[in-house]
Amino acid sequence: MDSMPLEEMKQYRGMDEVPEDFDEFWDNQIDQLKLPDYQLTDQDFNIPNVKTQTLTFTGTNGGKVFAKVLMPKRDKKVPVIFTFHGYMGRSLDWSVLLQYVACGYGVVAMDVRGQAGFSTDHGTFDGMTVTGQIVRGMTEGPEHLFYRDVYLDVYTLIELVASMPGVDESNLKCYGGSQGGALSLVGAALNPRIRTTVVQYPFLSDFRRVLRTNNQSEAYNELFRYFKFVDPFHETEDDVINTLSYIDVKNMAHRIETPVLMAISMSDEVCFPSTQFAVYNRLNGEKKYLVMPEYEHEGMHVYINDVMLNWLCDTTIDYHKH
Predict the structure, then answer these.
(1) Residue 317: what are its φ and ψ, rounded to 5°?
(2) Can you give the pTM of this predicted structure?
(3) What is the DSSP secondary structure assignment for residue 61, as one 8-state letter?
(4) What is the DSSP letter of 143?
């Protein structure tokens, strides 16, 4: 359990500052990126008034990226929500994604490369790769990190979808929880096309605090395995944290200028609430957070989904009505 008091969390910005060349690094990564061709394949699910397709493209280091695309059949351009899934998982089922289409929005759900979905990772990495993906490339430098490729997949996906004829590129939004929350923030930080971001308990934040709080949850256990079996005296800790700082989402926060709504689970033992506040407190634009004291790192079933839908789709569902 996170030991930091809530009042302290409200001011907490993380244990390490943003690297001086952070923005230069990511601007250069994007400048060097060549947008790939993409393929759209129709999927006939016999759903009236909804066009369903799969989108595939080749990302950096030869990764093959897969996403589900659902669009309402309309004569005018439609706004689009990009939704991202949790660590080790896969994109939401087609049937679940239909809720956004019912509100008049297109929705695009990406499978993160190398996890449980259809995207594949072809990268090679030196050093330990035995348990997870945070540590991949960690000892080689920021340009070799696994998540560097994933973040560029997110940027590329947004660019490709924005270029499609039926898409309203002026109204693009991101939504996700845990890893999906991190990637939603990354999408808004790297691609200014994103107009709204809605996030639940973001992953990949404040790595030094993860170590200091001995957070050995499944999501972060790979960091502890590295130090336990590779560097028990933590002689490389500063170098490792500096490298990981380039994928630390709290360091992305200052780049986000559009509205962000964040749901923070105060009993979270996977992504400690202090690490979530470290992101929130660095946001410079319009922002709002909702604190849920009893919730852990889990599905949220009471009211919160209505609140999220209202923010994402400009609906006015009154979740207090029976």
Answers:
(1) -60, 125
(2) 0.96
(3) G
(4) G
